[in-house]
Each structure stands twice: as structure tokens, then as C-alpha cells.
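Q: Please design a sequence for this.
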């Protein structure tokens, strides 16, 4: 078992004022010619990632790798994914690494996903979806040393189709979670969107080992504010800044905890594909610095 504890790694970065997460969503077709190794997909992706890491690591607080872009390349992609993770771990010691895989299945299948993510790849955190419930996710939740980011209110178009459905928690849930009390059988029970119910469930019931976080998109600042109110100082991974159009100031105002921390601000395409020319790595570095300073300036003004 790795001795890297995700929450400690993340806390160290927050102490350094680093809240930006660079998403290495290194889609092969978008990688500039300057990084291309023709007929060698593994080295193309790995070379690209290596140069992005070299120009961004001094100000970032985490890296996030979306597994789909690597899995699509088969054996070459898996090799590039693993080599990129090893590069970050050895060249930037103490840098948190998140695998954005959105895994979840029945519990014995999840044991395989746990082995893949935390032992074979050696990442520090993973994204999961909650639809199959806590018991199925227990192999993830049992890993006190790792970060388990549960999808809550996402940034994609159509996210509200299920996540905004209004539901009624049970009376026992209301009591256990300390919601405004009411008499059992009262005609007007508490009602809330599903994403809020999920935030209560994860923060109150699933987080026994203090290793849970939530994924909430920057395109939904009002929902993000409500989630933060519910979960206290739990880490929130926030995609949607940059190419997806999330408002940074509104996101930070809604997302930081009482100590002005608690957020992982992810930008992927807006950083790594800032230039399609030979200066792609330098452009990525400039965009990362720009986002880092923007975050810092907003937090100082709060």
C-alpha cells in the first residue's frame, strides 16, 4: 500500500496557495505536430504530457488524467497513462494525481478498479459515480489513504436531468443529518434536489475515513454554494473552468470553505491545447500561471 496520503498531499498544496488542477486530457488528434511521433502513439502522448508538466508544475496543486483518452488508444494509451503518472510522481514529488475514471460497479468488480487505479497505476484519487450506492463503493471508501470523488452536480449539458430531480429524504435521514426537525408524519416533509441529498449522504454517511470529496461543476455556482454549505470542509473537485465557460469568481465565492480552501479548480483543454503550434508547452504554462494568479487575486479579495 502506498504511503502517499491524498488529503495530506492536497492540504500541502493548499498551504502553498495552489488550487489549480491541470487536466491532462491528451486527446491524440489534438496533440500538436511538434509533439507527434508518427506511428508511435504512446510516445506522442507521453512526450506531450512531459512537456506540459514541465511548464505547469510550479504553480499547480494537482494533475487530473481522464482515463478515456488513454483507454481509447489501447495498449499504447495504458502505457502512456502509466508512464505519465510515474513521471509526475518522480519529477514532482508530492504532487496529487487524480484519475478521472468515473468508475463504480458491484463491490467485487470495484475491487478490480481499486487495484487498477491505486496499485497498478498508483494514483492518489479517483472519481466514482454513486448510482449503485454506498455498499458497492465500499472497496473505494475503505482506502483511507486515497481520495474518492463522488459525482454530485456535474458541469455537462443535461446534468440536471436526474441531478436536479426533487426528492423527499426519509424522516430518519433528516434526524441523522440534523436537518430542521419536524414531527414524524407531518404533511410538509423536507424536499430537495437529488444532488443535495447526495451531498448530505456522502458527507454524513460515507465519509467515515475522511477520504471523500465531491465533483461539482463550475457551470452551476448556485448549486455549488449549496453543496459547500452542506459538506463543510470536504474537498470539491470543480471542472468546467476554461473551455466549458465556468465563471471563476462566482465559482470561488461559492466553492471555498470557511478557511478559504477546499477547492480543486480544474482546467483541461483551455490549458493543454492553448496553442497548436511548437510553443504549445509554453502556452500551457502561461495559461496555468494566468489561472493561478486569477485564483490567488480573487481569494485575496474575499
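A: Design:
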Amino acid at each position: 500500500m502506498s504511503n502517499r496520503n491524498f488529503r495530506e498531499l492536497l492540504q500541502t498544496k493548499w498551504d502553498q496557495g495552489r488550487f489549480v488542477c491541470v487536466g491532462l486530457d491528451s486527446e491524440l488528434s489534438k496533440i500538436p505536430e511538434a509533439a507527434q511521433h508518427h506511428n508511435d502513439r504512446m510516445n506522442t502522448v507521453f512526450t506531450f504530457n512531459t512537456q506540459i508538466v514541465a511548464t505547469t508544475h510550479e504553480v499547480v496543486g494537482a494533475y487530473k488524467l481522464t482515463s478515456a483518452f488513454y483507454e481509447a488508444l489501447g495498449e499504447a494509451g495504458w502505457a502512456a497513462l502509466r508512464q505519465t503518472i510515474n513521471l509526475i510522481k518522480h519529477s514532482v514529488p508530492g504532487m496529487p494525481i487524480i484519475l478521472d475514471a468515473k468508475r463504480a460497479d458491484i463491490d467485487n468488480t470495484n475491487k478490480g478498479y481499486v487495484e487498477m487505479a491505486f496499485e497498478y497505476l498508483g494514483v492518489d484519487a479517483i472519481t466514482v459515480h454513486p448510482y449503485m450506492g454506498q455498499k458497492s463503493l465500499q472497496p473505494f471508501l475503505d482506502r483511507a489513504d486515497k481520495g474518492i470523488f463522488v459525482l454530485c452536480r456535474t458541469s455537462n449539458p443535461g446534468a440536471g436531468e436526474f441531478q436536479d430531480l426533487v426528492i423527499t429524504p426519509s424522516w430518519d435521514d433528516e434526524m441523522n443529518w440534523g436537518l430542521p426537525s419536524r414531527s414524524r408524519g407531518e404533511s410538509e416533509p423536507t424536499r430537495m434536489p437529488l444532488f443535495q441529498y447526495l451531498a448530505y449522504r456522502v458527507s454524513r454517511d460515507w465519509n467515515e475515513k475522511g477520504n471523500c470529496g465531491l465533483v461539482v461543476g463550475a457551470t452551476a455556482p448556485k448549486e455549488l454554494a449549496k453543496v459547500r454549505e452542506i459538506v463543510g470542509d470536504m474537498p470539491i473537485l470543480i471542472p468546467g473552468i476554461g473551455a466549458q465557460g465556468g465563471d471563476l469568481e462566482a465559482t470561488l465565492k461559492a466553492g471555498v470553505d470557511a478557511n478559504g480552501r477546499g477547492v480543486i479548480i480544474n482546467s483541461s483543454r483551455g490549458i493543454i491545447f492553448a496553442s497548436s503550434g511548437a510553443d504549445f508547452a509554453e502556452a500551457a504554462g502561461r495559461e496555468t500561471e494566468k489561472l493561478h494568479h486569477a485564483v490567488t487575486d480573487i481569494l485575496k479579495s474575499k
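Q: Thanks. Anything notable?
A: The chain has a mean pLDDT of 94. The longest strand covers residues 97-103.
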